[in-house]
Amino acid sequence: MNNHAAGISIIAFIVTVAASMAYYQFVYTKEANAKPQLPAEVLNPPEQLKVSIIEGSSQPSQPKNFEPKEIRGSLGINNKVIWTNHDTTAHSVTTDNQYNDQINGPFNSIDTIGLVLPQKTYEFTFTKDGEYSYHCEPHPWMTGKVIIVKSFV
Question: What is the pTM of this model?
Answer without folding.
Answer: 0.77
